[in-house]
Structure formats: C-alpha cells, structure tokens
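User: Batch of two.

Assistant: Item 1 of 2:
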Amino acid sequence: MKILVLNAGSSTQKSCLYDINGDIPSSPPAPLWEGKVDWSHNQGVAEIEVEKSTGEKLTEEIATDSQSEIMARLLNTMSAGSTKVINQLSEIDLVGHRVVHGGREYRQSVVISEKVKQAIANLAKLAPAHNPANLAGIEAVENLLGEVPQIAVFDTAFHRNIPDAAAIYPGPYEWAEQDIIRYGFHGISHQYCAERAADILDKDLRSLRIITCHLGNGCSLAAIKNGYSVDTTMGFTPVDGLMMGSRSGSIDPGILIYLLRQGNCTVEQLDYVLNKASGLSGISGISSDMRQIKAAISQGHERAQLALDIYVHRLRSYIGAMLASLGGLDVLVFTAGVGENSPEIRQAACEAFEFLGIKIDSSKNTNKLVDQDIATTDSAVRVLVIHTQEDWQIARECYHINLRE
C-alpha cells in the first residue's frame, strides 16, 4: 500500500511517500520519496527539494503562488525524471494530511468528506495560520488525484482524553460551553514518541508513565498514562505553556489587559508580540534559534544567558506539573530540534529531578544518540532521545483507518 503524507503549512510544505506491505514495522522505514517546498524566501517563487530513498536529488524553483501548481510539479517528480519512484500517480492508495485543529468534534483521524472539509474551514478561527493551509493541501490533492481516499490526522486528537479538570479553564463556565478549552497540540509527535519509547524499552505502553518533551521552535510537554495524554502544556492555542523560540508561553493575562488599557497596543500588535517577538527571541534580542543563543552565551552575551535561564526554569516547572498529573514517572522523552540536539538542555532539565533518581550518562548525552536511552543503568527513570517522525505516524494512522473501513 502506497501512502502519500502531506504536511502543508502557510509557507512550507513537506510530503513523503511510504510503501507498507504486510504488518506495520516497529521501526520507522525511510520514505520511498520525500519532497519539500518553501515559498517563504521570495514572494511568488516556490523552492522545491526532492530526494529518493536511494539518494537521487532534485532542486529547482518555480514562479507561482498556486498550491495546485506547486503540488502538480511536486507529484510529477514522483513519477518522472531522476526522482521517479512510481510509474503513475494512480498507484497512490491513500493520502494522509496533518491537520492542526480538529476542535471538539474530531477527536480521532477520519476519512475526509465535504463535511470534514467544512469543519476544517470553520476551525480556521482557532488555527488561522494552519487550518487554511491544511485545507488548501487537501483540495490540491483532490484536483490532481481525483477520488483517492484522503485522511485527516488531527494534531489535537491525541489529547482528547485529557480530563475536564485539566482541560477547562477557571473562567466562567460559559467559556467551556463556547469550546474555549485546552486542546493541546503537537499530538502527532507526542503519540509517536510515546509509542516509540515503548518499542525501544520493549515495554507495554499502557504500563508506562511518560513525559514527552517536544522542544523545537514551538514547545510543549505531554503527560501520558496508559497510552493516553492526560495533561499537556499548550492550551486553547499553541501560545500557552512553555517559553518557545518566538512565542511567550504562559504569562499573567493581566499584562495584556494592562497594555490594552494603556493604549500601547492593538489586538493585532499583541498577537504579533506574543507569537513572533517573545520567547528566546524577545528576551535575547538575538534569535529564536537555540544554537545562536548558545553561541552568544559563549561570547558573554547577558541577555542570551537570561533567555536560556528562563527557558530552563519554565521547562523544569512544567515537567513538575506533568509529573503531578502522572503521580510518578517511568520515562522522560526529549524530541524535536532542541530536544534532540541540545545535551545542555537535557542535562539542565534532568538535574532538577535527581531527587527522583534520574541519572543521565554524560557520555551518551553528548554523543548525539537518537532513539536511545541516555540514562545510566541504575537510573530510576529511563531518559530517551527520540527523533520524532510525524510523517510516519500519519502514515500509520492512515494504514489502520484503511483496515477499519
């Protein structure tokens, strides 16, 4: 079964083609074909990069803003030229889409219908930077591949079992009735990492209490018990929770009221500040990239050091909150760009929980091991570094849904 996975964003897009024959492998395979599109650098120009599993690559630019034109060119590289992996596009059996927001209605992956498309469009008010792009990707595939089954895999769905005590905000109850609740995000990544952790440790996922730390430009934690997310740090929007690359994370809401009353900010300016001019970037004044923050620290930059200190403080605080929701901890997972590549962050996060018996092997921690346990043999908690593979998780979801249909 050939499954095309599409992760469409507002300015970038990633696609993968997987071929699954028989049972799902426990370790993620490399995709047959992988394509990336970026139209953020030059207006009206799409930069395309394509690579086959055998190593052949293609890089080109096309002058267009049209999602359908970009998708047509991308898919053409799958069936023609040096990056050809199939004879014709009709060989694609399923297409899986990452859709950021499913709201309260869509709490698991579903086959896309007109009703589902309308719901994704309606939920754009909750995810204006993502759901419209996700929908555009779905419609582009419809235009190009006709009636091939498409499946929406929602980033919010993994958090569907969070209890009301954690999901409902302590404002007026009418908020909950208006669907203003904690949805949580990065669910595809958190689910993948939890299942992968159980595979690596050769344990039953349902027997493990896991905290997954997705630390990239966007950051969130999830507390996972019996295989389900029972708490998470992102909330009604992805701005909640941890300090991030350019997002503030949780702040006193009175600050926003104060700024609005003083007349210093419009709603649009506040939105920009919270999402684009806060976090590591806002505090350091340098960058949202942790690598550049650490480079500045090595040169004695005080605000960069402050940004890192705040980042670590808040990471530790929220790990503690997730720990309380679990009532204990068996596995701590680090993933995404910072989680996978910053031994200093992993070490700093774990040092605060040495009282739990967490012990990191410093050699393993600094050796850039992926999908490995970096804890010492006598650590009371296993500490894993896992390369998150959301595209493969989406392909697995599609495969299982197809079996059920």
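Item 2 of 2:
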Amino acid sequence: MNKPYSKAARTRNFIIESTAVIFNKKGYAGTSLTDLTSATGLTKGSIYGNFANKEEVALAVFEYNFSRVNRLTSEKINQAKTFEEKLRCYVDAYRSMMKDTMCRGGCPVLNTATEADDTNSLLRDKAAGVVAAWEESLTRLIQQGIQAGEFKKDVNVRKTALSIVALIEGGIMIAKIRGDMSCMDNVLSTAEMLIDQMII
C-alpha cells in the first residue's frame, strides 16, 4: 500500500506544479518571487519554508517538466516490439505532444540549456545530464537494433543518435520562434528518414 504524502511533500508538489509553466516560459532569471506567490497563492515564507531558495524551486520544476515529457516517451517505447518501432517512438511522442509543449512554453531541456548556459551551472548541468542520457538511450537502441539484425552494421551509431536529438530539439526551437508547428513536422520527417536509412 502506498504511503500517503506528508503535508510538506504535498505543499512542495503543489509549488512545483503551480510554477512549472511559469519557469518554462520565463526562465530562471525572468521568474520572480512575486510570480511564485501569485501562481501558488502562498506567502514568501511558505515557499521558502519548503525550498531553500528560488534556484531549488527551479531545479525541482525542471525535473518535473522533463518527467512529463519523458513519461510519455517511455510509455510508447515500452509498448513497441522492435528496435525500429522504439526509435520511431521518439518521433511519434514529440509529434503528438507538440501542441501541449508549445502551450507550456516549449521544451524544458532546450529552454533551460539556452538560458543557463553561462548563468547557472546547476541548471546547465541538469540539462546536460538529460541530453547525455537521451543520447545514451538512442545509442543503446541503435546498437541493439544492429545486433538484432534490424539495422545495417555500418551505421554511425553516435552520429545518428546525436542527429536525432538535434533534429527534435532544433525543430522545437524553430517551431516556437516562428509560431508554426508545421516546421516541427518537417524536421521530424527528416528524423524518420535517418531511421529509414538504417533499416536493412
């Protein structure tokens, strides 16, 4: 039986969920304490009674925002039967959640990496860790696909994995800047072509 959340844990989760879109849209630097109190209806004391500072809230929000994206992708991958299908799950997942992603301010990894690159090492490291894990996951799927005889043996595994990550993140950036989700669809079609080229 699941143990119920404590009041403190519920309050922390409430703060994270209530400020997730604000941090993703405004960024760490652009989000003020007033934004946090307005979004939650809590006092400054209540927020800082649950988090040491704004940076700690931002780190927790980043993990929450990324987990939403990761959960959908993981669910699709777990249902796929072949390694080709598992790779295509990344394309399908981002295609299906593009509208929601735009409404929530874009991709949390891209937003955080861009803003925190030279300003916040903790947030930058979080984003870098997610990209590294994503690359590793794609690399593993491609390698397994080669071993299973689904993909060509001469595939440049790391180049392909990084290209898929770059296409998806770049597609989100272009679609967001131009306000045109068809840009993302065109970029995802290129990611699909990369997968097609690997198939035996």
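The radius of gyration is 19 Å.
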